[in-house]
Request: fold
Amino acid sequence: MRLRKIKNAKEKLTEFAGLVLFDPNQYKDKWQEEFKNNNPIHLEIGMGKGQFIARQAELNPKINFIGLEIEDSIILRAARKISTQSLSNLRLINYNALNLNELFKEKSVSKIYLNFSDPWPKTRHEKRRLTSDDFLNLYKKVLVEDGIIEMKTDNRKLFEYSILKFNEHGFKFLDLNLNLHEVENPEIITTEYEDKFKSLNQTIYYVQVKI
Reply:
């Protein structure tokens, strides 16, 4: 179900300056200055309402987290929720992942999370999938040596497509699970979608690869 759009969402995001970054291209060579440290950067593409990345930031204070979300209404919902926490190692950006090379210099991101991305099932929309050739080429540019991509999805066809693409692009497989929540594991950090799917006993597919 699509979330209702919030009127003037982009303007309302200005209430959360500091947490939400504007004109993010200016930070391409200055992420260390923005976070005031040299800690690794982890990036979630399509962060949704922010439950996953906020929890990651809370548990991992020595990692800098950046959440990308193209829908301004969705990132506004995330900002409203996350702003109640004090997370100096988290920034949110209303941004299109197709322009990652304008946001990060080469070999500057340690890990990328792809959580429940839109499967774009029609063949004519293949290029929009976040594991298509164009996106994987972008990730390979911005990821550090041995950089990691971690993916979760409830869509088997997208999962199978992604496995093939990771293999075609020479990624090394670190972990693969065809039913992530078959055994309860409290250490798994979940998204809002993931909690819903778990409650419905839907299968969650997981893979972790590195360059």
User: Anything to note?
Assistant: The chain has one domain: 36-210. Strands lie at 41-45, 64-69, 90-94, 109-115, 143-153, 172-177, 205-210. The radius of gyration is 17 Å.
